Amino acid sequence: MPSKYDWPAEGKRSLIGKRISRLDGPDKASGRARYAYDTNRPGGLVAKLLCSPHAHAKITRIDTSEAERAPGVRAVKVMAPAGTEVQWQGFEIAAVAADTEELAQDGVRKIKVEYEILPHLVKEEDVSKAANMIKPSAEETKGNPDSGFSEADAVHEGYYGINTITHCCLESHGQVAEWNGDNCTLYASTQALGRIGGDLAKVLGAEPATANIKPANIRVITEYMGGGFGSKFSIDKWGIVCAQFSKQTGKPVKLMLDRDQELLMAGMRPSDYAKIKLGAKKDGTITAWQHESWSTGGPGGGGAPPIPYVFTEIPNQRKRHIAVSTHTGPARAWRAPNHPQAAALTMCAMDDLAAKLNMNPLDFFIKNLPLTARGDVYKAELLKGAELMDWKTKWHPRGQGGNGYLKRGVGLSLHTWGGRAHDSDCRIVINSDGSVQAQLGSQDLGTGTRTVIGIVAAETLGIPLSGVQVQIGDSNYPPSGASGGSTTVGGVSSSTRRASVKALDKLFEAVAPSLGTTADKLVARDGRIHVEGDPSKSLTWKAACAKLGTKSISEIGRQPARDEGNLNDNGVGGIQMAEVEVDTETGIVSVKKMVAVQDCGLIIDVKTAESQCYGAMIMGVCAALYEERIFDQQTGTMLNADMEFYKLSGIADVGDMVVHMMTGVYDGRGVIGLGEPPAISPPAAISNAVANAIGVRVPTIPLTPDKVLAALEKGGRA
Amino acid sequence: MQAFEYSKPTTTKEALGMLGAQWGETDILAGGTDLLSLMKDYVHTPKRVVSLSGIKELKLIKSAADGLHIGAMVTIEELLENAQVRKEYASLVQAARGISSPQIRAMGTVGGDLCQRPRCWYFRKGFGLLPRDSRGRDLVPNGENRYHAILGNSGPAKFVSASSLAPALVALGAKVTIASASGNRTVDVEKFFMAPTDASTREVDLKPNEILTGIVVPVAGGAKQATYEVRQKEALDWPLATASVALKMSGSTVQSAKVVLGHVAPTPWNSAEAAQALAGKAINESTAKVAADAALARATPLSQNAYKVQLAKVAVKRALLAAAGKA
Ligand SMILES: Cc1cc2nc3c(=O)[nH]c(=O)nc-3n(C[C@H](O)[C@H](O)[C@H](O)COP(=O)(O)OP(=O)(O)OC[C@H]3O[C@@H](n4cnc5c(N)ncnc54)[C@H](O)[C@@H]3O)c2cc1C
Q1: What is the CATH number of the domain that holds A24?
Q2: Closest C-alpha among A676, A562, A549, A688 to residue A619
Q3: Percentage of chain A with pLDDT > 90?
Q4: Which chain B residue's Cα is nearest to A648?
Q5: Distance between CA A261 and CA A231 in Å, rounded?
Q6: What does CATH list as the number for B56-116+160-217?
Q7: ipTM for this model
Q8: Is the CB of B125 less than 8 angstroms away from the CB of A631?
Q9: What would the pLDDT profile of A140-194 be if each residue is shown by its tens digit?
Q10: What is the maximum span of chain A, computed from C-alpha positions, in angstroms?
Q11: Pocket mutation for ligand 1, best pick of A259, A643, A644 (most atoms within 8 Å of C-beta)
Q12: For the whole model, what pTM was predicted?
């Protein structure tokens, strides 16, 4: 049943689906936007953490007396008392709050800790060295793998891997805490401003001195946010100690992680390594899959990768996984958890099988689309991608990438994601002066959430985007979900749409008598309210709102509320293609071009949607070519916990990027999240492009010069 | 960063009077792009920092009979903008351009580039320049040595010299001028760099109370020159291997050559073998390759950095072809 809450039909949209610049662009570019990191409260203190220099050790003694007496130090707290076994370098041991950052750091250096060093494991690729740190899981089978392989005309076996990486948020983790009596304001860099206040209250409520603190006592503000990528959902130990310091000293306290701490302990993406065997018929149809995989997510080991990825319906499968625990900072969700790893393992193994069959991978992947959940979507996307990449001209059989030492090649990968809408409440307020506020306890991580909310409200109310004040980033506004799993755009656009329709209905009721009609005959368009079919009977938006007199309208819209319109959905597919140039004398890979073709249902703002894809592809180039946590097994130290040797690409390193959004085709499904899907395929597509260029597979990501040269040598192509 | 006393003298003489006689007491501050990182990481904890930014004479570039005099406090960007440098010293310009961020080129100085501390990650993480574990074992041979030395690494020093300008300056036969309370001295850039043999020595021939005041680059006299850097990425990064070459030609053949490799040894690596291989030859793909092989013939890669041998060969070959106009 169609509903008045449904999205307007294509010809009737004035803002939705257009290319609109983000509302906060100028504030961000000019530095006016205030992040948690920029928040400095009058009379505030700065807190710093003391972290373990060892990967695995037992704290035998800890003495803070000298730190307590140090100049400017106002509070010292032990977070890991004697007896604690630290499990990674960077483990939080104590914190110091002082008048300035420098004095806090000096204070931290005066804390004396004695350790009993314990054996550590910081590398997992060579699983044979992992000894008692492994946890194998039971073998899983589907169909009959043995007969699947005997049916195959070609069988390929290979080794593939993708390493652990970190999130590298531009703004590090942290917050400013400020108490007023029993009420605390937390200016936090968080993906979950509606959640961390409650989490903090729970911890404080369990301590005698703060037993009266309830979730309602904590207000969280996140006006602007410098990225999270899955690593900023928790209040974290540093958030708790920051609030405690502030309560204890009666002063605002700021605690932001240093960059090395950020890299050591604020989250990483688990690795995945696998020996994969797969077989296919001459025509390319895959008949069987088998793998033995291992991975680490830090002390907790690493979960089994969801492979075979996308091609989940391969009839015969045998799988085994080993979780490896390492003494390294623990994993956190990283933009599409598990998917980039699964794509890298699956798509590279499939690409190698295609090469063995002498098939163009484009044909091979299309041939096997019946083994996926959305073959038609992928087929349309692959064909569009091939056109944008000029795949037909650029693809060549392996090893025919040119005669000189510079070789070109192309590769592709497929991905999928959910992206359902999270729970969200939106309040729309219409005032008699014509001003409109959209209020949600949501946060804009940099993705364009603020802009999307403004577009939906303005579109629905028939006013320009500048007529809506978007008020988010404060837990005092109606609750909206955490921003993870690409759930935000579906959630906030749905609740905003519903609240806007309801508020507009109220306005129609207020103005109908003066237009000599009833509310159901009115429409709002181009900044006017008029009688449907009779534009001469109209009021400007301002004049209409003036009819409210001393009152204002305030309406809440909710997601979920399925009976109020079909506004969002779940489940998307996307494909990416990469073109690379490899210097076969130096092993240096440069990405020349990437193409992303992506479905995400109805697009609210094409420009911010494309930006998500650009950002994801850039992040993917970094992961494919440069990023590595480099650990020294002798000392357990991460040697590159800095932005110098933890390498990221600059703008000159990313090549041309082409984004094609599948607009129109899937609009009827409503809004579906996009933050994660485009971040999945880049490493796989780039690795496949390198294999196409140089004729041999570089087994593990990142594709650094040493590994590329080694692969060339091993393949007899040096 | 540990608290320190800051002083900003206006003459070299005054500055010399403020420097301590022992390493660790005082540090000279030029552009600060390296020193501040060292201090923030507590690798350097000086009691006093002596800034050279108030000393005007150190900021000059002057032409003289013996060549171009470049003051230690000339920034890398100023070096790049100087007309005479651009005209005469292509290899130096190419090396300076490689220093990858505009911010570093605008703040970093010529003197600072030559005196910057090695980037060895064990050193930077507090394990010492000749890194040892608590039991005194050398951490580099069995550790993470992908960016370490492949030449001149048989002693305890296995880091690579960080300066990109140094190999070009060695190839051009430049000298550094050094001032101390007892007078001035001049040292070939090549001899200025040394591989330390114990924890008490540094990687450059400089005493704690000396100041590098400038460099003198002899007139290039039409020598063909080039620098080639092998870099993994364009944005902010260190080269993996470099080569700077200067060729005195007689007609189309090499009369004498200098081939100096960077980021492959604890010092800039002046390869006599490569020079010898080139004497009397015309430069082409095959002679360049022979010279490159000769330059790396004595390479002794560590457990993870054999690939750098290949990269260094490529740097030599491509620098030679570029110098000869054949790239
Ligand atoms: C990410 C990154 C990438 C980089 N890439 C490159 C590169 O590719 N190639 C390259 O060459 N460099 C590179 N650099 C290093 C940069 O060039 C140096 O930091 C800079 O040249 C140092 O100059 P400065 O004036 O800032 O020195 P400072 O930081 O002020 O000083 C550095 C050291 O030299 C000493 N010193 C300085 N001047 C004198 C003097 N006149 N007499 C005696 N001692 C002195 C100081 O006491 C200190 O120990 C890079 C740096 C970074 C952070």
Answers
A1: 3.30.365.10
A2: A676
A3: 98
A4: B235
A5: 13
A6: 3.30.465.10
A7: 0.97
A8: no
A9: 999 999 999 999 999 999 999 999 999 999 999 999 999 999 999 999 999 999 9
A10: 86
A11: A644
A12: 0.98
